UniProtKB/TrEMBL annotation:
Similarity-based family: Belongs to the ADP-ribosylglycohydrolase family.
Keyword annotations: Hydrolase, Magnesium, Metal-binding
Official protein name in the record: ADP-ribosylglycohydrolase family protein
Organism of provenance: Mucilaginibacter terrenus
Cytoplasm is among the record's keywords: no
Keyword Hydrolase: yes
Length: 310
């Protein structure tokens, strides 16, 4: 379990750090000058190996699970990140999503965490998807109804709309399939049955289910790159991460493919990187990248504590 937890945390953080210097660059810019290694500076003027809010909030969730899972602990950790620089790479918060910021403000004002998130359809950024992966170790042995409910609660701290919740649910169901040793194509095809059936069983409206047709009906891996978007919209991030995973053969190739899609490079690569590390193993993350990562020893310690809590 320790290496699984290392894979979850480092898989996300390495993808994130690879993408930070290129965030907001267009795909065309990156075609001409692709990211091929861990670099620094760039968009946010941060040194190589710097992770962003994606990883910081992932670590906040992991800490809450390691301490004995409680939504209030997750919320408290997120407030501490935003205002006390908890789990930042270099004692600085240099990026925060609008929806996440609004939710943290409500948390600070005393709102219950399960009701703090925005539920407007326009509030479907990728801010809950990017931090959700550590929840896998807490829900992996639970029934599907329990998994969905816990995912909904953790997503709703910042993103309460059903589309964000379903995106997190699909992502963690994919992660669970990989954790259980499934081939990535087999996992993908299995989810086209199981996730689709589950969403119908809990009476998710057809219009929302249809938003996921490229994952639940089509073969997303066969969709041309030009039709894969990589903005900060949660469904774009989810689709791009699965596309990158299915169209690569290693952790390194998956996360670099994600970064070089452009735009929201850090989050696309973080979400891809978590799955890729589960699929290929923590040991396949390039050592050179691990050694450059900010707070590597602290993340290692967190992975050990997280594995001991489940």
């Amino acid at each position: 379990m320790e290496n699984i937890c290392r894979g979850i945390l480092f898989g996300v953080a390495i993808g994130d750090a690879l993408g930070v210097p290129a965030e907001f660059k267009s795909r065309e810019q990156l075609v001409n000058s692709p990211v091929t290694n861990m670099i620094g500076w760039g968009t946010h003027e941060q040194p190589p190996g710097t992770f962003s809010d994606d990883s910081s909030l992932t670590f906040c969730l992991a800490e809450a699970i390691a301490d004995g899972f409680d939504l209030n602990k997750v919320a408290s950790n997120m407030i501490n990140w935003r205002y006390r620089k908890y789990w930042t790479a270099h004692n600085e918060v240099f990026d925060v999503g609008i929806t996440t910021q609004s939710a943290i403000d409500r948390l600070g004002a005393g709102e219950r965490p399960e009701f703090a998130g925005d539920f407007d359809e326009r509030s479907n950024g990728n801010g809950s998807l990017m931090r959700i992966l550590p929840l896998l170790v807490f829900i992996k042995d639970k029934a599907v109804n329990q998994r969905y409910e816990l995912i909904k609660q953790v997503s709703s701290i910042t993103h309460m709309h059903v589309r964000s919740v379903i995106s997190c649910f699909y992502y963690l169901e994919f992660a669970l399939g990989l954790l259980n040793g499934g081939d990535k194509i087999a996992v993908y095809q299995n989810l086209q049955v199981t996730v689709a059936e589950y969403l119908r069983s809990i009476e998710i409206v057809a219009g929302e289910r249809q938003m996921f047709d490229r994952l639940l009906i089509d073969r997303i891996d066969m969709i041309p790159e030009g039709q894969i978007q990589s903005s900060g919209y949660v469904l774009h991030t989810l689709e791009a991460s699965i596309w990158c995973l299915l169209n690569s053969d290693s952790y390194k190739d998956a996360v670099l493919k994600a970064v070089n899609l452009g735009n929201d490079t850090d989050t696309t690569a973080a979400v891809t990187g978590g799955l890729a590390a589960l699929l290929y193993g923590y040991q396949t993350i390039p050592a050179e990248w691990l050694n450059q990562l900010a707070r590597k020893d602290d993340i290692e310690d967190l992975a050990i504590r997280l594995s001991g809590a489940v």
